[in-house]
Amino acid sequence: MQRCIMGRVANKESDRSLPDLLTVTAIALVAYAASNVSHEAFGHGAACVALGGKPNVLSSVHFECNEEAISALARRGVAAAGTIVNFIAGAIGLVALKATNPVRKPHISYFLWLFTTLNLLMGAGYFLFSGVGNIGDWADVASGTVSPFVWRPAMAVLGGAVYFLLARQSGQWLGALVGSDDLSMRRSRLLSVPAYVAGGLLFCLSGLFNPVGPSSSRSLLLRRPLAAPRGFSGSSSSRAGASDQQNQSSWNVAMPGSSPDASPR
């Protein structure tokens, strides 16, 4: 008896066939976009509104909040919210993944595995990259609190350790999708490498339309994770000038009353 798995037909010798490239790519694009929306819109955006800020611009790779009217503590809350939401989204995705049968619902299971992995590693990657490079959301959170000679190495070590442990755990979760037969390693590559390429191209192409300008776009993209598993995330801590606001395109959502004194994240 034959069964359709990941877009192809599996024969009676195996419950799982090789993944279909187009199916994997399509699912990866949705997972990458959803994880980024979780960080930018539901994280930074929701915190900006909740803490009294004014949303200015939401694009495919950044969010700008007018923070003039809020306290320094609230600004740290806006900066931290993106990562916090990533961890929450990853936890929800993991619960859903554990409750889904990967043989009966392979496409849903793959999306949940990738969405969970991207969100969790994005969260850990922020700590790692902020500690190493002194840029990104958690550099904004830690700035002015304690000496950078204390928080930077501590944050880098913490982020690196958590990232490593989560990456190993993600590999174990992937094992339920690829099985344990002779084709399992090949399935693993087909489920991860195309996702890496698709997600990287998605962020690079969308970054070309970033309203904060070409140089800032390159800086943002260098701090965006391009892999599945995903790593080294960050956001810009620079200020967007008035001329940058004129470069908005259809990839961005401009908010009413937007101001050039906004911090892109």
Can you summarize this structure?
The protein has helices at about 20-50, 70-100, 105-135, 135-140, 150-180, 185-205, 215-220, and strands at about 5, 10, 55-60, 65, 255, 260-265. It is an alpha+beta fold and about 260 residues long. The protein is globular.
Provide the helix percentage: 55-70%
Total strand segments: 6
The run of helices and strands is EEHEEHHHHHHEE
Whole-Å distance between the termini?
52 Å
Count of separate DSSP helical elements: 7
Radius of gyration: 20 Å
Summing up helix and strand content along with how strands pair, one would put the structural category as alpha+beta
Query: Which range does the strand content fall in?
Result: 5-15%
How many separate structural domains? 1
* Strand line-up of the largest beta sheet: 5-3-4-6
- The mean pLDDT is 79
Could you give a short account of the major beta sheet?
A: 4 strands, antiparallel
Uncertain segments are 1-14, 215-219, 224-261
Tell the overall outline: globular
Note the main attributes of this structure.
8% strand; disordered N terminus; alpha+beta; two-stranded antiparallel sheet; 265 residues
Word description of this protein:
- The chain has one domain (21-264).
- The chain has 265 residues and is α+β, with helices and mostly antiparallel strands.
- It is globular, with a radius of gyration of 20 Å.
- The protein contains seven helices and six strands, in the order ββαββααααααββ.
Secondary-structure blueprint:
Elements: E1 3-5, E2 8-10, H1 21-50, E3 54-58, E4 63-66, H2 72-98, H3 106-133, H4 137-142, H5 148-178, H6 184-207, H7 214-222, E5 253-254, E6 262-264
Helix pairs in contact: 1-2, 1-3, 1-6, 2-3, 3-5
